Amino acid sequence: MALGPRLSDIPNIRRTLTFYKVSSIITGTFLLVLCLMMVFRYGLGGDIELNGPSAFLTLTPKELVQGINVSTIILIVHGWLYVFYVAADFILWRLTRFSFLRFLYIALGGVIPFLSFFLERQVPRLVEAKIATLESAAAAKAAGADSAKATA
User: Fold this and answer.
1) Looking at the domain assignment, is residue 150 inside a domain?
2) Residue 134 CA neighbour count, 13 Å, CB half
């Protein structure tokens, strides 16, 4: 038996693909916000402080932050979103039986800026092509079985 998705997994694949697309967009957006935050932290020397003594929103050196450290919140939120992104990638990989290198490539989408937006378009095309191939093979097999019954 060839390695590939099973016909019975198609509903789960489509559900996981929807979850993957949503998590890809959200994780990619937070990755861009994270990159901006890194520019503020390492380029300008300050974390984003909310409701501090200086102003409502300001850049403050990390050790002097007295209000809410938005930079830390961005780091934590992106980390958890990336966990959901990789979980969606893993489930999709398991159901579609992609190669492990493809799994790693898709997982990089939450680490390399803009890659998740590219993959959000590319991965569904690959998955839908696999599903279409699987459904056409199943339809051809069913048609062959029907014609065999008719001749018998």
Assistant:
1) no
2) 20
106 located within any domain: yes
Cα 79 to Cα 139: distance, rounded to the nearest angstrom? 43
Structural domain of 81 = 9-145
In a domain, 46, yes or no: yes
**Cα–Cα distance measured from residue 9 to residue 93, given in angstroms and rounded to the nearest whole number:** 12
Quick check: is 66 in a domain?
A: yes
Which two structure tokens, joined as six digits, stand for 100? 């492990």
Choose among 50, 69, 66, 70: nearest CA to 58. Answer: 50
3-class secondary structure for 91-115?
HHHHHHCCCHHHHHHHHHHHCCCCH
Domain count of the fold of the chain: 1
The per-residue pLDDT for range 72-111, each reduced to its tens digit, is 899 999 999 999 999 999 999 999 888 899 999 999 988 8
- What is the separation of C-alpha 142 from the centre of its chain, rounded to a whole number of angstroms? 35
Prediction pTM value: 0.81
- CA 18, 20, 21, 25 torsion: positive or negative? positive
